[in-house]
Design brief:
Elements (H helix, E strand, L loop, with lengths): L1 H13 L8 H4 L2 H18 L4 E4 L11 H17 L3 E2 L2 H10 L10 H11 L3 E9 L3 E10 L4 E11 L33 E4 L3 E11 L2 E10 L5 E5 L5 E3 L5 E2 L15 E3 L4 E8 L9 E10 L5 E8 L12
Parallel strand pairs: 1-2, 1-3
Antiparallel strand pairs: 3-4, 4-5, 6-7, 7-8, 8-13, 9-12, 9-14, 10-11, 10-14, 14-15
Helix pairs in contact: 3-4
Length: 322
């Protein structure tokens, strides 16, 4: 038992004591700003001054940044919360400096700086710079006497990149890689004498031939929409015209099963054949014709023409279902 107790005592003596966390690591964002504000307040009170004009913080290159404006607002808030000093309104300060064309506090323009301080009733100007490090911002604040534009005191603090300040250090995610899409192939040009295409269907004239005293127009209609279609036209307003402007009409008795009487019902992406039969005027011998179509459905009272149609015939394409 004595030996066991001695060994336990020896082990306790040689064991390292737990290391304490460095004090700077435990300081929070709010506490760091509070300490900085206390340093400013202490030196201002010591100089027997009361009213401060806070200039925007600048980066290590002396440039103004959105982060610098944010730090100035945060420091001003902490100073006002303490309640010992007053802070010049930022809008008033900004407009006064702009009016007097003051961008930096320069001793060579001390007279103008004094006028600005008098206009805003500021006892001291407060300037600040920050240096960006991996874990924190190193802030340096100087109190500037407006009489000679010389510093009368300074204080420093290390502020961790935490709290609301993290929004200024978010890493931008790279844009998603563009995946090349297979470009849809252009549909081959329709085989036929003429074509009309709209948002619902495509009509292709495949042949135009004269049979005695009649002219038959053979055509196909393909539904390229995603819904069922009922295609129907006005009989009297669907006709051919020739080069002289003569009208070649349809007759009811020759088109009882046609597009302008019964119509066509088409499922999505389906194609059907149909025929128009027209009657040429007496003595007509035209070779170039124009087809005029007046819809009732699916587009109410829509009209279109297909011109340049030549009497003759072309082999109709084989029906296919995409």
């Amino acid at each position: 038992m004595c030996i066991m107790g001695f060994l336990l005592l020896l082990l306790a003596l040689v064991s390292p004591f737990p290391s304490s966390t460095p004090s700077w690591a435990a300081v929070s964002y709010e506490e760091s700003l509070k300490q900085l504000a206390e340093g400013v307040t202490e030196k201002t009170v010591k100089a027997k001054k009361q009213r401060l004009a806070l200039m925007d913080f600048t980066d290590s290159k002396g440039e103004g940044t959105p982060l610098g404006q944010f730090l100035t607002e945060e420091l001003g808030t902490q100073i006002m919360v303490a309640g010992e000093l007053t802070v010049v309104d930022r809008t008033l300060l900004s407009s006064t400096l702009k009016k007097m064309q003051i961008k930096h506090l320069d001793p060579s323009h001390a007279k103008t700086v004094r006028r600005a301080a008098k206009a805003i009733r500021a006892d001291l100007f407060v300037t600040g710079t920050y240096v960006d490090t991996p874990e924190s911002l190193q802030l340096t604040v100087r109190l500037i006497n407006p009489i000679n534009v010389q510093p009368i005191g300074a204080t420093r603090a290390s502020v961790p990149k935490a709290g609301p300040m993290t929004t200024f250090f978010k890493k931008e995610e790279p844009p998603p890689e563009k995946v090349p899409l297979n470009q849809p192939k252009e549909p081959p040009p329709p085989v036929g004498l003429g074509t009309h295409r709209n948002e619902y269907y495509e009509l292709v004239v495949t042949s135009l031939e004269r049979q005695g005293d009649r002219v038959k127009v053979d055509f196909s209609v393909q539904n390229h929409s995603t819904r069922d279609l009922k295609l129907i036209c006005h009989l009297q307003d669907t006709f051919l015209t020739d080069e002289q402007g003569a009208v070649w009409p349809q007759r009811v008795e020759e088109n009882r099963e046609g597009l302008c009487t019964r119509g066509l019902e088409l499922f999505p992406h389906r194609k059907q054949r149909a025929v128009f039969t027209f009657t040429p005027p007496a003595g007509a011998s035209a070779s170039q014709l124009t087809l005029h179509v007046h819809e009732q459905s699916p587009r109410r009272d829509a009209s279109f023409t297909i011109d340049g149609l030549t009497l003759g015939s072309l082999p109709a394409p084989k029906e296919s279902t995409p």
